[in-house]
Specification:
Elements: H1 2-10, H2 12-26, H3 31-54, H4 73-89, H5 92-101
Length: about 100
């Protein structure tokens, strides 16, 4: 199991390119699922933008803004974006696999 995690971590850029393409191939979207997933994507992106705006790299530890509420708000935002896309996809297996790999 450790070698699988290491393999995926080392190939994460390739995985992040291939995974959305695979998700598009198996997706069964409906308008209802699209409108259900869209708010998750929007909120996730807003959290990521807010978090990135508060970062001061190579300086002090950031403890204000979203970092006062959560240790890794960029990850929270990314997960919400992914959850929105999983919802839009309309398949439970994509939700399960995507959440585990996230």
């Amino acid at each position: 199991m450790k070698s699988v995690v290491y393999f995926l971590f080392r190939r994460r850029t390739l995985f992040l390119t291939v995974a959305p393409i695979l998700m598009l191939l198996v997706a069964r979207p409906t308008p209802r699922l699209f409108w259900t997933g869209l708010p998750l994507v929007v909120v996730g992106e807003l959290i990521r933008i807010w978090s990135a705006g508060c970062l001061t790299k190579l300086k002090d530890l950031v403890t204000d803004g979203p970092f006062a509420l959560c240790r890794n708000p960029l990850y929270v935002g990314s997960f919400l974006v992914a959850a929105g896309y999983f919802t839009m996809c309309g398949r439970l297996d994509v939700w399960i696999i995507g959440t585990v790999l996230f």
